[in-house]
Amino acid sequence: MITTNPLRAGLSLQQEPPPFTIVIFGATGDLTAKKLVPALFSLFIKGTIADFNVIGFARRPWSDESFRERMAEAIAPLPFHAEANVRRSFLQKFTYLQSNFQDRDGYLKLATRIGTKRLAVFYLSTPPTAYETIIENLGTAGGDLSQTRIIVEKPFGYDLASARSLNDRLLAHFTESQIFRIDHYLGKETVQNMMVLRFGNSIFEPMWNNRYIHHVQITVAETLGIEGRGHYYEKAGAVRDILQNHLLQLLCLAAMEPPIDLTANSIRNEKVKVLSGLKLIKGADVKGNIVRGQYTEGFVGGESVIGYREENDVAPDSRVETYIALRVFIDTWRWAGVPFFLRTGKRLSRRLTEISVQFQKPPVSLFGGWMSAPKPNILTWRIQPDEGMRFVFNSKIPGFKPLLSPVHMRFAYGSAFGEESPDAYERLLVDVLHGDSTLFTRNDEIEAAWNFTTELAASVADYAADDLSLYRAGTGGPARAQELLGPHHATWRRL
User: Fold this and answer.
1) Is 246 one of the annotated active-site residues of the chain?
2) What residues contact 255, with CB distance under 8 A and at least 6 apart?
3) Which of 61, 291, 388, 447 could serve as 481's disulfide partner, Cβ 3.0–4.6 Å?
4) Where do the domains of the chain lie?
């Protein structure tokens, strides 16, 4: 076990956040128990946060004590060594305020309980239908919002019009610097390291263009199904659930131009340029540039699972996609002609999120007479599981025969730095407390993403609503997805 990490020697830790109160709207939901409270507990154990309070705001008739009991259950299985008195000290910071989201009196009580002497963070962990109601009540309940921040979970809107409406509602009561539209993928170490790899190492950026890169693949594959969210998923599908946020954010980081500096706005300016440069998939073009699929019954991890249409709250004849693959182009000088292949799906054979860049073949083949031809160079960011990077290049196999073989250079966060990467929610919560919005989406950025997605969804509805390929759960998705890569003499990476 590594106890001293030479790579971290001399690194200063971020200063402790200011005293704060975090208000979790929808505190009785799964996100609070599975993500937010474990992240807060981890930060508390590490000493990153100390002076804070948590107020749960929800409709269930819970007391402070019952709220603490349920949060105790949430942290019980966590792999953190903490004495009983430490856990008690953490849980004593939790209180509960019962109210529905429409009740103005609840917000008046909340303002009194928060006071004005510390930073207040509002976390909207509710169904999206409640966002505007909560925002409006926070803005009109009489409390001072100048020392507050608000975190909004995805999905941020249903289409471009609703995203604009939600942005307008937020900006009526909060400044852009107070608003944190969260995408937890951006809190992962490998995602953050993409800019360092590209702009902090001179060997990569000169080749980061259409002269040297053949194509890029971005994959977000899940083994899970819809997890009881049939009502939501019937409206969202894979396009709105994953493509609009996770996939397009990863695309931005892979394709963006170097920012003038590392401030939040400079980075987000470049991401907006990528989204604005995306060639819209309009009208009948959807038929040649996307493949939609839906899982049927099968086996995942050795266990039998039902098909999408057998899930609760799903129509028996549903045409909603649980898988989508698409080919997109970015109309910029750097990326003209380079295809970006994006795919995401549920109930696939493996949980995997990665960005893979395949470089062009050498202009002249010097090894035509050899028994094996060179393979393409491939640079891959593995985002989950096992965060890290891998580069594939060619080498001669030792011996008398003229044989080439691809070999691998690997970098894994866990082994290189002697510790696991922080949970994404930990990093993002700390950034909110420090007012750093670099890893959060700006209003024009979210609208640019929705502009692309809304046009795509409308074209699917008009031209390809019935063009849906079924795939068995536990497989790699529809075989038809390969048709997108065939004209480019490429294949999908194996899951």
Assistant:
1) yes
2) 216, 274, 330, 334, 335, 340
3) 291
4) 16-153, 186-488
Q: What is the CA radius of gyration of the chain?
A: 24
Q: Would the pLDDT of 15 be above 80?
A: no
- Residue of 155, 180, 156, 176 whose CA lies nearest to 166: 156
CA distance 109 to 57: 11
Sequence-ordered strand ranges (E) for 347-493: 352-359, 378-384, 388-396, 404-412, 469-472
**In this structure, CATH architecture of domain 16-153:** 3-Layer(aba) Sandwich (3.40)
One-letter identity of residue 441: T
Tokens of 31: 């996100």
**Distance of alpha carbon 480 from its chain centroid, rounded?**
26
Structure tokens at 123: 């976390």
Q: Token pair of 19, please?
A: 């005293």
User: Considering only 37-46, 368-377, 393-402, 441-450, which range has the smallest mean pLDDT?
Assistant: 368-377
Instruction: Give the residue with greater pLDDT, 369 vs 135.
Output: 135
pLDDT tens digits along 295-317? 999 999 999 999 999 999 999 99
Give the closest residue to 125 by CA, choosing from 94, 97, 152, 159: 152
> Which DSSP category does 475 fall into?
B
What's the distance, CA 8 to chain centroid? 27
The answer to whether residue 228 scores a pLDDT higher than 60 is yes
Q: Which CATH number is 186-488 given?
A: 3.30.360.10
Residue with tokens 């053949």: 214
Model pLDDT, residue 419: 66
> Per-residue pLDDT for 372 more than 80?
no
Element (H, E) at 276: helix 264-277
Over residues 106-115, mean pLDDT: 91
Q: Residue 416 and residue 73: Cα distance in Å, rounded?
A: 33
Tens of pLDDT, residue by residue over 459-478, are: 999 988 889 999 999 999 99
Distance CA 264, CA 174 (A): 18
Asked if residue 51 lies in contact with residue 19, where contact means CB atoms within 8 angstroms, the answer is yes
CB 160 within 8 A of CB 452: no
Q: How far apart are CA 67 and CA 69, in angstroms?
A: 5
- C-alpha 135/C-alpha 150 separation (Å) is 9
Q: What amino acid is encoded at 222 in this protein? A: E
- Residue 383 · residue 413 · CB < 8 Å: no
